[in-house]
Amino acid sequence: MALPKPGQTDRTTLNRLKKRSVEDRDEMYAILDSTILCHVGYVENGQPFVLPYAFARDGDRILIHGSSGARFMRELAKGVPTCVTVTKLDGMVVARTTFDSSMNYRSVVILGSAEEITGPEKNELLEKVSNGLLPGRVSEVRTSTAKELAATTLLSLALDEASVKVRTGMPEDDEGSGTGVWSGVIPVHLVAEEPIPSDEESAGLEVPASVRAYVKNPKA
Ligand SMILES: Cc1cc2nc3c(=O)[nH]c(=O)nc-3n(C[C@H](O)[C@H](O)[C@H](O)COP(=O)(O)OP(=O)(O)OC[C@H]3O[C@@H](n4cnc5c(N)ncnc54)[C@H](O)[C@@H]3O)c2cc1C
């Protein structure tokens, strides 16, 4: 059942600039669905580790996959407390002072413990991850082998406890105009360039639909 809010608890309530908190689950989904990179953190023997991973959303959870040989994956699969952060940079906010300069962004913080997915649904959900990263790619290539599936750990993290923070708009500084100092916003967005074939065979083939679609609408 979809929760009405991202999942605000004491731990996921903003302290600073609460006005930037977004309590709309659909907006959280929109941020997650337009992103493929997250940073995943956990603490081992008092030492925090944070690593970047690809992810895809599946309803009210996110899916993260990785090598079953990776220490990080093995630790997360044990269900240790984790924090996942997703960040989109939308602009550089250039104020009349460096103190007031900022960024326009949309970000999501998710707390919880991951669960490993091992059953018959693993292959289908791994395909969901692949299609989340490059929509349509799964149907253009062969199915994964049993060996490839065994070499991959698939984790899910419920979107039960999360927060969303969004900054938009112009700089907010107290200097006012008349200082002779420029201020404004530099919009920032992701651009994908012309795909480069890996070898002569690929150079002779038509660029597949999934790749063409990504170039038109890239996400990172
Ligand atoms: C691209 C980007 C760049 C930033 N750069 C800076 C910077 O240089 N300096 C700076 O002071 N701040 C920066 N921020 C804001 C920063 O991420 C924190 O929001 C802020 O410092 C935390 O303040 P707090 O004391 O309210 O957080 P806390 O009290 O520590 O947070 C409480 C809870 O609020 C939620 N929360 C906090 N921050 C975020 C967030 N960004 N997105 C979603 N949920 C959140 C989490 O659930 C967290 O557990 C940046 C944010 C983004 C997205």
Descriptive report:
With 220 residues, this protein is of the alpha+beta class. The protein has a single domain, classed as Electron Transport, Fmn-binding Protein, Chain A (Pnp Oxidase, Chain A, Roll), CATH 2.30.110. 21% of the residues lie in helices and 33% in strands. It contains six helices and ten strands, in the order H-E-E-E-E-H-E-E-E-H-H-E-E-E-H-H. It has helices at 25-33, 71-77, 122-133, 146-150, 200-204, 209-216, and strands spanning 37-44, 47-54, 56-58, 61-67, 81-94, 102-113, 115-116, 152-158, 161-167, 184-187. The strands form two sheets. Strands 1, 2, 5, 6, 9 and 10 form a six-stranded antiparallel sheet that branches. The protein has a four-stranded antiparallel sheet with strand order 3-4-8-7, sandwiched between helices. A hairpin with a 7-residue loop joins strand 5 (81-94) and strand 6. The longest helix is centred in the middle third of the chain and has 12 residues, at 122-133. The protein is globular, with a radius of gyration of 20 Å. The two termini are 28 Å apart. The model has no long low-confidence stretch (mean pLDDT 94). Flavin-adenine dinucleotide binds at residues 11-16, 87, 89, 103, 105, 107-109, 163-165.
